[in-house]
Amino acid sequence: MYTIAICEDEIIWQDKIKEMLNDLQKKIKISLKIDTYTSGEELLKEDFNQYDILLLDIQMKGVSGVEIAKSIRKVNENIQIVFLTALESSWAEGYAVKAYRYLLKPIQIEEFHETMIGLIEAIKKNKNCIIIKSDGEIKRIQIAQIKYLAIEARKVIIHTWDETYKTTISLSEWNEKLKGFGFSNPHTSYLVNLKYVKHLDREKIILTDNEIIYVSQRKYKKFKEEFVNYIDNIK
């Protein structure tokens, strides 16, 4: 099941989007839980972390959709945000909050379904997990939650958004396990999730939470190429 929030102050558009989502459930045989909100303020009062996808109108009364998205991104990097807008001029603002896509009103059902199918495929990939043994316990970790892995005191430490995990699996083995999930080596002691890189230069990487990871000169060129390729393939 995928959980979706529609934040739209026009009831006619709420109903239209729900109708298109219900059509999509039948079309590709998936299960969706759909909640609706008429304002961004209403959404922020609820547990928005429960949602996989947020369909967010930009031009709402009160706080704009972009401002709501900024508030959400302060605490949640994983909700996939699709902006709904009647104004093409507002599209540039989406880069700051990592919006998946914009849909221009009036929304066409073919474009809507195409967007949602692509998004659901991306979420499936993000929900992939690894299972590790850490400090004598079996742990299940979502790959999308991993910021980076680092060699520390002959162990590999997995750094996620919530905590760290110590493993005896080598970094080279982790390179193989995480191949295809958007990770790259800026240094022989690090493996970084490219989705959390917000700055790169020849000396360092700055992650989206402002943590700094240093880059080796020998690895810089390849890491930069892989990062640019990752950015180019984001929809």
UniProtKB/TrEMBL annotation:
CDD domains (alphabetical): REC (cd00156)
InterPro entries: CheY-like_superfamily (IPR011006), LytR-like (IPR046947), LytTR_DNA-bd_dom (IPR007492), Sig_transdc_resp-reg_receiver (IPR001789)
4-aspartylphosphate: residues bearing it: D57
Entry's Gene Ontology molecular function annotations: DNA binding; phosphorelay response regulator activity
Domain Response regulatory: 3-120
HTH LytTR-type domain residues: 130-229
UniProt KW keywords: DNA-binding, Phosphoprotein
Gene3D superfamilies in the cross-refs: 3.40.50.2300, LytTr DNA-binding domain
Function according to Swiss-Prot or TrEMBL: May play the central regulatory role in sporulation. It may be an element of the effector pathway responsible for the activation of sporulation genes in response to nutritional stress. Spo0A may act in concert with spo0H (a sigma factor) to control the expression of some genes that are critical to the sporulation process.
Protein name: Stage 0 sporulation protein A homolog
Gene source species: Holtiella tumoricola
